[in-house]
Design a protein that fits this description.
Elements (H helix, E strand, L loop, with lengths): L11 H9 L10 E4 L4 E3 L13 E4 L2 H6 L3 E2 L20 H10 L2 H13 L4 H11 L4 H19 L4 H7 L5 H12 L28 E9 L4 H10 L6 E3 L5 E7 L2 E7 L7 H6 L4 E2 L8 E9 L6 H12 L5 H8 L6 H6 L11 H10 L5 H14 L20 H5 L3 H8 L3 H15 L10 H9 L6 H10 L12 H7 L4 H8 L6 H17 L5
Parallel strand pairs: 2-4
Antiparallel strand pairs: 1-2, 1-3, 5-10, 6-7, 7-8, 8-10, 9-10
Keywords: Activator, DNA damage, DNA repair, Methyltransferase, Transcription, Transcription regulation, Transferase
Cofactor: Zn(2+)
Enzyme class: hydrolase
């Protein structure tokens, strides 16, 4: 009889072969619990592999903790970057996992999450237990614990502030959870001997607007130049600041107000250095995938916004992607292989704010990228959302545009203020009305329903819908077959041919699109940007 694995979706024999071969490709997707030691590890852990009968496999670190295991101190399974496997699916469990990853349990609770997904709390727990091996509360606790450990290691915040920033309700809860996860008290966890202190021309660190310097982990190779080129090519005046020879800064919108993230690209090792073992690239254990840290500085409305800010930045830079998985799926394709050899580790950046991206995509229909940026900047300045009471403004940046304000503005006034055609103004207003009335474009949204709703709006076609699915909904298989640059890269003028060619790239057609766009985006990023 096959040894039980926990979740029914895991195949014990395949998992055991991966662990026996220390296969780093399984890191972050499968976790090994060892009954004889009470420890859980990543499959690539260099420690001696346990006997078969002592192995249990789980789909999440949270499930390991719920089963009574604590994290291995040697391979640090909690330090593995996330996985986009859940993003490739559109079912209830995947939507729930994505929302929990974004902090839904902390903000709306399990009852609120179940209501968002239109199911009962009981059904939600049952489905998560069957596929993930743990319920929503344990998933949220695990998320907070791993974030807290990263803050302990990366910052000099007092432990009480770490607990608050990671979303714990009390210091006692923080301590209990950390002991359960790691087997030691938070005060016993190692801290960086000389924490980096953020330097920023906007001013010093303050209690009113704290700044945190962090290195966000991602799997190598990480094509920093390609991601930077994408951000520069899509930079919006008032929302992004691009230093041609230095860091980039971006406004991000959080529950407490507008924050700013500065990304220090010059401190990211090149892809060649990442793969050659540069000292700045952290090893993930013997035979494990290498992990690179992306240095950022967050200027926050308050410490409570730390976790949401980190998640937005991870999505913006696609830090949970697995380049080995993408290369395995696409690297043998005759069209994509030459581009992937030139640009290994390219990512699929997400939208920092789903509604803003959707509105901006409508503005960008059938015009150049530079013209779209200009109009999007006008929209942000003209319809900036009013900050909630007590939230701090980000100096030098504007917040995202307010869909309700746009919906309440006549089409004629939109034409005059933004420089639009009448048809484009009507479409923008219709979409803004749908967003203001509750159209959800976030990670927990029903992708099929969103696609149908958007297509029903006059003036929105498949190109816009697929871009929204790719960047806002986070669908890695979205494919804008009618895109002009994409068709040129594929050597065809026919959308049907592009769509037919794309079938062999599923479920990663979004990444294939990014590679096909990469030459154009690099050229576009060299032009004047905000």
């Amino acid at each position: 009889m096959q040894t039980p694995t926990g979740p029914a979706t895991l195949d014990f024999d395949a998992c055991y072969r991966a662990a026996s071969g220390r296969d780093a490709r399984w890191d972050g997707r499968v976790y090994l619990g060892v009954t004889s030691t009470g420890i859980y590890c990543r499959p690539s852990c260099p420690a001696r592999k346990p006997r078969r009968e002592n192995c249990r496999f789980y789909a999440s670190a949270a499930a390991c903790v719920a089963a009574g295991f604590r994290a291995c101190k040697r391979c640090r399974p909690e330090a593995v970057p996330g996985t986009r496997d859940w993003d490739a699916r559109g079912d209830l469990v995947a939507r729930a996992v994505r929302r929990i990853r974004d902090g839904a349990v902390d903000t709306v609770g399990v009852a609120g999450l179940a209501a968002e997904l239109a199911v009962s709390e009981r059904h939600l727990r049952r489905m998560l237990l069957e596929e993930v091996g743990v319920g929503p509360l344990q998933l949220a606790r695990n998320r907070r614990a791993h974030a807290a450990r990263a803050l302990i290691e990366e910052t000099d915040l007092p432990l009480a502030d770490v607990a608050f920033a990671a979303g714990f309700g009390s210091v006692r809860q923080f301590g209990d959870t950390m002991r359960e996860e790691f087997g030691i008290a938070p005060s016993a966890l190692p801290r960086r001997s000389q924490p980096e202190r953020p330097s920023d021309p906007a001013g010093p660190v303050s209690d009113e607007r704290p700044k945190l310097a962090l290195r966000l982990r991602t799997r190598a190779p990480f094509a920093a130049a390609g991601v930077r080129a994408f951000l520069a090519a899509h930079a919006i005046p008032g929302r992004d600041l691009i230093d041609p020879a230095g860091p980039t800064s971006h406004a991000i919108d959080l529950p407490g107000g507008t924050a700013v993230v500065r990304i220090d690209w010059g401190d990211v090792p090149s892809v060649a250095e990442q793969l050659a073992g540069d000292p700045g690239v952290r090893g993930a254990g013997a035979a494990g995938a290498r992990v690179v840290g992306v240095p950022i500085v967050l200027s926050l409305p308050g410490l409570a916004d730390t976790m949401p800010a980190i998640q937005v930045v991870r999505r913006l830079l696609d830090l949970d992607a697995d380049p080995a998985q993408i290369a395995s799926a696409l690297g043998d394709d005759p069209v994509l292989a030459p581009i992937m050899l030139r640009r290994p580790g390219l990512r699929l950046p997400g939208a920092r704010h789903a509604a803003e991206f959707a509105l901006g995509t409508v503005l960008g229909q059938q015009i150049s990228l530079a013209a779209a940026r200009t109009i999007q900047g006008r929209m942000a300045a003209a319809f900036e959302v009013t900050p909630s009471s007590g939230s701090g403004a980000a100096p030098g940046f504007v917040a995202h545009p307010d869909p309700r304000s746009i919906a309440d503005t006549s089409a004629d006034e939109l034409r005059a203020r933004l420089g639009l055609t009448r048809a484009r103004a009507d479409t923008l207003r219709a979409l803004a009305t749908a967003l203001a009335e509750g159209l959800e474009l976030g990670p927990g949204a029903d992708r099929d329903a969103v696609r149908a709703t958007l297509l029903a709006i006059r003036g929105i076609g498949p190109w816009t819908v697929e871009l929204v699915a790719m960047r806002a909904l986070g669908d890695p298989d979205a494919f804008p077959a009618g895109d002009l640059i994409l068709k040129r890269a594929l050597g065809t003028e026919r959308e049907s041919v592009a769509r037919e060619l794309s079938q062999r790239w599923r479920p990663f057609r979004g990444y294939a699109t990014q590679y096909l766009w990469s030459d154009f985006l690099e050229a576009a990023s060299g032009k004047d940007t905000p």
